[in-house]
Amino acid sequence: MQRGVHGLKHWREVLLGVHVRIRRGNCLIVVSQGSVAVKLDGVRLERSRSFGAVWLGWILWRALKLDEQCETLLVCKRETVGWAEVVAILVIGRLCEPSSELHVAERWYRTTALEDLLGVSTEEIYDERLYRALDRLLPQKEAIEKHLVKRLGELFGLEYDLLLYDVTSTYFGAPGQA
User: Fold this and answer.
1) 28/39 Cα distance (integer angstroms)
2) Residue spans of alpha helices (H) in 9-140
3) What is the pLDDT of residue 139?
4) pTM over 0.70, yes/no
5) CA Rg value for the chain
6) Which residues is 149 bridged to in the sheet?
């Protein structure tokens, strides 16, 4: 371990197992159990994706047992990706970066780690599929509301008369005057 690193002042840290980083030119030497030299000009970052917020969203989704509820309510027939996963993507997207379904499909999803968490490739998430998921979700609205009231009460010991939720994906229209 002492060979390869000369002039190191903090041998005590090395002996105690603490990682010591030394930069020499374009190399980074990390000393711990052994030494490893890394050419910094040969290191590059590829496909960086956000993880923390989507991971927390996924944990909350599962804690509320919305994955189970949606799998029960939104039965798949021939789809390779279940409707429950598509709805999870929509909900987590709304939580992390409120935007349109088109933005989720074209930009947001591919910049997150949800592909790794859910096992759903970016090619399988497109705007029409997201819109169809909303159409499938609407008839289940009352069952999902009841499930959320029950589950939130179980998790947090809440008693309430009114639960408010986001309806920005819903729109109302009327024929305009000519």
Assistant:
1) 7
2) 11-15, 52-63, 66-73, 83-96, 101-103, 114-118, 127-137
3) 94
4) no
5) 25
6) none
